[in-house]
From TrEMBL:
<dbReference type="InterPro" id="IPR003607">
    <property type="entry name" value="HD/PDEase_dom"/>
</dbReference>
<dbReference type="Pfam" id="PF13487">
    <property type="entry name" value="HD_5"/>
</dbReference>
<feature type="domain" description="HD-GYP">
    <location>
        <begin position="120"/>
        <end position="316"/>
    </location>
</feature>
<protein>
    <recommendedName>
        <fullName>HD-GYP domain-containing protein</fullName>
    </recommendedName>
</protein>
<dbReference type="InterPro" id="IPR037522">
    <property type="entry name" value="HD_GYP_dom"/>
</dbReference>
């Protein structure tokens, strides 16, 4: 009997998979010869799988005649639109960055046009903004970091109920926060080594350069400009460039710092490999009292937890599982349901088990 290729929306229980369904991570989501259940079909639809190769007959021997895919494809369309907007924002930033290195001024209007679609569409996107680097191969770290950090900021502020004006202004600030790197003595962001002390002194000037580049821009609010200047300040006063105490650091600057740190950790860098989203959250929580505003940490954690609900993850033991509940006090140790056994496990009671990967 012939095989056929159908969309995940056309699958029914009893379909027989005849070729591994590969996720964006390169790992099989469902293996060949699997007889699909309603739960597995739900996962495939949730992960926006476009094509599944199945047998022309069902497990019971009857012919499989897929219905016309009448289910709305809007989630997939939204995904394409958001990722296209994200890619365009990164490309636009990279072009501007090259111009800044040669003395051009910051064109806020053009950059705003690039990033606004990202800020507006991120709340509609069916993907996981906390795992954004996994959706596309990294081409240029700095430009994708600018767009990715802006998307995170917007998603968190939207979830926390901030105004549209704040979402757009602070999202734009996140996009522009590192523009001052273009004025440093060397392109440190592409060097395949850790910084020397002399390099670090130069790098610590980039928030000041960024601020000066946008200081006179009428399209950017004063709190957005302040967030740019202060996004590397720390609550313990050990940040830069001004070593401000926590009471003088704007809360939006702290949010930029959280998102900047998180996105950098989950991205491939010239001098180190990316870490998993859950490991990145652990790192941020270890530093929270020394570095960040407590209220913004709570907004970040809540948005992260909400984004992971019902996602499929790979445990350090190798099993695939679904996140079913997360206690805010233990954001990286949720309750999960193993796919193979259906057993629910509380990772808070299993300190030797961690989440190594979020499966797309």
């Amino acid at each position: 009997m012939q095989d056929m290729i159908v969309s995940a929306n056309q699958l029914v229980a009893g379909c027989i998979v005849t070729a591994d369904v590969i996720g964006k991570s390169g790992m099989p989501l469902v293996k060949s010869k699997t007889v699909l259940t309603d739960m597995e079909i739900f996962y495939l639809q949730k992960m926006l799988v476009k094509e599944v190769t199945v047998a022309s007959h069902l497990e019971n021997g009857s012919s499989f005649v897929p219905e016309k895919d009448s289910v709305s494809m809007q989630p997939a369309i939204i995904q394409v639109h958001f990722l296209d907007a994200y890619a365009a924002a990164a490309k636009g930033y990279q072009k501007q960055f090259n111009a800044w290195q040669h003395g051009s001024t910051v064109d806020i209007a053009a950059l705003r046009k690039h990033i606004l679609p990202v800020l507006e569409k991120v709340s509609e996107w069916e993907g996981n903004v906390f795992n954004l680097p996994a959706y596309k191969e990294q081409i240029d770290y700095l430009s994708e970091h600018a767009a990715g950090t802006a998307a995170l900021v917007a998603a968190i502020l939207q979830k926390a109920g901030f105004s549209e004006a704040d979402i757009k202004q602070i999202g734009l600030a996140a996009y522009l926060a590192d523009c001052g790197i273009s004025k440093l003595k060397q392109p440190y962001h592409i060097q395949k080594r850790r910084l020397h002390d002399s390099d670090w002194e130069d790098v610590q000037k980039h928030p000041t350069f960024s601020y000066r580049m946008v200081e006179q821009a009428p399209l950017l609010s004063s709190k957005a400009k302040l967030a740019i200047l202060q996004h590397h300040e720390r609550a313990d006063g050990a940040g830069y460039p001004l070593r401000l105490p926590k009471e003088k650091i704007h809360s939006f600057a702290s949010l930029l710092s959280i998102c900047d740190t998180y996105h950098a950790l989950i991205s491939e860098r010239a001098f180190r490999a990316a870490v998993s989203p859950y490991e990145a959250v652990d790192i941020i929580l270890e530093e929270q009292f020394r570095r960040f505003d407590p209220a913004m940490i709570q907004h970040f954690i809540q948005a992260f937890i909400d984004a992971q609900q019902n996602t499929t993850v790979r445990l350090s033991s190798g099993e695939l599982a679904e996140v079913v509940f997360t206690d805010n006090n233990h954001p990286t140790k949720p309750m999960v349901r193993e796919q193979e056994t259906g057993q629910v496990k509380a990772l808070t009671e299993m300190p030797h088990i961690r989440i190594d990967q979020i499966i797309l």
